[in-house]
Amino acid sequence: MIDLQLDGIDYQPAGHEVLRGLDWSIGERERIGLVGANGCGKSSLLRILAGEIAPDAGQLHLRRGVRVGFLPQDVEHPAGASLLEVAMQLPPELAALESALLDVEARLADPAVHGDERRLERALARQEDLLARREELGGDLHASRVRATLVQLGFGEADHGLPAASLSGGQGKLLALAALVARAPELLLLDEPDNHLDLAAKERLEDLVAGYPGSVVIVSHDRYLLDGVVDQIAELEGGRLSLYRGNYSAYVTERELRRLRQAQRHADQQKEIARIQASIQRFELWASWVVNERHIKQARSRRKQLERMERSGELVDRPAERRRLDLAIAGGRGSEKALEIEQLALGFDDELLFVGVDLLLRHGERVGLVGPNGCGKSMLLRAVRGELEPLDGSVRVGPSTRVGYYAQQHETLDAWLHRSPLELVRDRKPMDEAAAVSFLLGFLFGYDQVREPISRLSGGERSRLQLACLVLENPNLLLLDEPTNNLDIPSAEALERALEDFEGAILVVSHDRYFLDAVVDRVAAFEDGALADSLGGYTDYLEASRSPG
Predict the structure, then answer these.
(1) The predicted structure's pLDDT at residue 245
(2) Contact, 541 vs 523, CB < 8 A?
(3) Which of 18, 295, 464, 472 could form a disulfide with 283 if both were Cys (CB 3.0 to 4.6 A apart)?
(4) Helices within 183-247 (DSSP H only)
(5) Is the pLDDT score of 295 beyond 70?
(6) Residue 225: Cβ within 10 Å count
(7) Residue 524: other Cβ atoms inside 10 A
(8) What is the model's pLDDT at position 232?
(9) Coil, strand or helix: which one is 32?
(10) What is the CA radius of gyration of the chain?
(11) Contact at 8 Å (CB) between 429 and 472?
(12) How many Cβ atoms sit within 10 Å of the Cβ of residue 173?
């Protein structure tokens, strides 16, 4: 059964075509991952599905009785409200029912109503109808569902009194999700619900989505999450959707197969078109030598054949060439011991983060640094760079080691916010303007963007600019703090390919499990203030941590 149907949806904000003639149907209990490059319109499509914005053309059909819940990319909680108060907030329809029930109870308490049999009967009938509707909407179970969902998402009773507005971005989004799920909409729309979550929180999110009794459409750049919870991928490109059965990994394989088949069909058809055009030219040449009606008719017939192919839509397009991030980090030889940390202790504001941490990173090794938010992963990278003074222990960088640093919050760009990407890259490496523009185009910047202030760039664009600077710095030790946070999937895949070819050492903080599996050969995990080593990628680390003993 179809929960929601889109027919011929166009959306062109300010004349910019985002969606074009888009058709889509979402069935019961489907788990759909909506993917596509940054800026392709995924969030706009979710907002249309949620009824928050109207399309410029086309129709949206929602099956009777289907309620839609929407978790936007950015959420804000009211100042002064506690975590539990926000989670317990009733949905509008249920809030209206509760208000109506209070009105009926007030009428039933009115002596004038008790003295009028007809008025009393009407009030009791009204109350019965409202109670039945509240039961239908699950109002009696709302509070218990809220509490159960909070527990499922990692909030304990001790958290209930926390100011909702003071929560971190990731926790604030989980709180909004808990309130949304407790309302039990038949269709759940989630716009990057995993942003800024640590690994444990991502696992809880996956369990919730996998077990949700309704349909779910989720926008996420977390390929590990998409592999674990979705049974269909909807790829948005050029304003249209392409649908693929299976999870993200199955989609990658099928997408490449489709592209190869289309390329082959296009090549075969072009050969056939060339053959027909050659025969037209031949018959027209013969007709010019000797006026021969048969040759003229044959040329005309073949020309009509080509016209029919064009009119009927039989022409196969060449597969679109996607712009890809042009990323290659040279690296090169460095010290055998790229980084050596011994008995390191770090803390700030009288809070001890960790003590007695040891880590040896040799040239060519790739280590993923994982652990819960706030355990000190980013602080350790800053200590390696000399930005923080250890409370105890030592940090030694090899004498031939050149350090390249990617900052999670793009702090390396702060001093350049009022200058342009063009000025920044020419500062990092002397080159003429034409070469600098060409270099930035390879990082998917437009001609106008290279001269605009960096402050105008989006998070994803600033991430690509940081990567561009790394390329120019030619490091042989990379310190990467959440490098995929603001990257779309194609850009994250380009980074993975570049790191695979990188000749040097890598220490990377990441909650991107797919990325960790692709890049690292060792995981160093913060556990109870200590650092534990595990060989292999994230999946290997997860299996080892769950093994008994």
Answers:
(1) 95
(2) yes
(3) 295
(4) 199-211, 223-229
(5) no
(6) 26
(7) 22
(8) 96
(9) strand
(10) 30
(11) yes
(12) 27
